[in-house]
Structures are given as C-alpha cells and as structure tokens.
C-alpha cells in the first residue's frame, strides 16, 4: 500500500519519501527535480491553469480518471522507485484551501477513499497549513464539491 503526502517544492526534503512532481513547471533551484517522476493524472493542465474555475476543472479531471487509474499510476511510480511513500509536489506555499491543486487532490482522494494525504510543508506563516490534513471534500452534486474542515484531536507529548 502506498502512503501519499503533499508538500511544496520549497520545503521538500528527501527524508519525506520519493518526490513526485505534479506541477507543470520544474523548480529551477532544484536541478535534481529533472529526474523526479511526474504523475500526469494529477498535473494541472495549461488550458485551465490560470482560469477562475481551475479548481472545478481540476476536480473534473480527477473524476474523469477516477481513483483506480490514479492509484495505478501512483503504485507504478512507487514500484519503479522501490518505495511506499510518495510526496506529491507543487509550488504554492501561502495558500487558502482553494489555492492549490495538491490539497484539492488530497481532499478529493479522502472523499473517495477515506485515506488521508497529510501536508508536510509546515508553512508556519500560513494558519491554514495545520488543518489541511483534515480538510474534507463533500460532493454536493454532479461535479460540485464543498470543502469543510474537521477538528481532529491533536497528538501531544
Ligand atoms: Zn498546487
């Protein structure tokens, strides 16, 4: 079973797992990123990249591929790199719940599989950072989703 995480290109560290690019662009300051695998089913597309309704278009893309095809691509990447931990990477750091596709994917994945995809960028300057792991996506109609966040007990030492 493959465990999924998300992080920004800025804060990714190799101890987190196998990096998987889901951004269109490469992080220029990380030359090693040229060798990272790309998950095409989860990449945004140029045609809606800057559109106001990019999130709905991205969700429609995820719905079109579906869980089975996405899982199969991710498991193939994991097997090829001999790992069980994949870290899905894109650029955004200071973002709201609708500001970045890696968290949109995480919510969609949770909605359909009940498997959570924690965010690993601590983004201390982003108050929303901590609760992304528990954001839920509720389908309210065909191609329509709503985000709600759920309080989970925090683990304390
Ligand atoms: Zn993103």
TrEMBL record:
The name this protein goes by in its record: DUF488 family protein
Location of the region described as Disordered in the Swiss-Prot/TrEMBL record: 120-157
Organism: Haloechinothrix halophila YIM 93223
């Amino acid at each position: 079973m493959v465990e999924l995480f998300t992080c920004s290109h800025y804060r990714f560290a190799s101890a987190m797992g196998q990096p998987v690019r889901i951004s269109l662009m490469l992080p220029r300051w990380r030359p090693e990123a040229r060798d990272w695998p790309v998950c095409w089913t989860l990449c945004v597309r140029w045609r809606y990249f800057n559109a106001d309704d990019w999130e709905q278009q991205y969700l429609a893309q995820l719905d079109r591929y579906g869980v089975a095809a996405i899982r199969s691509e991710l498991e193939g990447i994991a097997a090829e790199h001999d790992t069980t931990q994949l870290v899905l990477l894109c650029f955004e750091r200071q973002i709201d719940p609708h500001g970045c596709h890696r968290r949109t994917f995480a919510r969609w994945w949770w909605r359909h599989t009940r498997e959570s995809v924690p965010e690993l960028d601590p983004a201390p300057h982003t108050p929303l950072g901590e609760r992304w792991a528990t954001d839920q996506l509720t389908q309210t109609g065909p191609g329509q989703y709503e985000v709600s966040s759920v309080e989970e007990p925090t683990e304390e030492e």
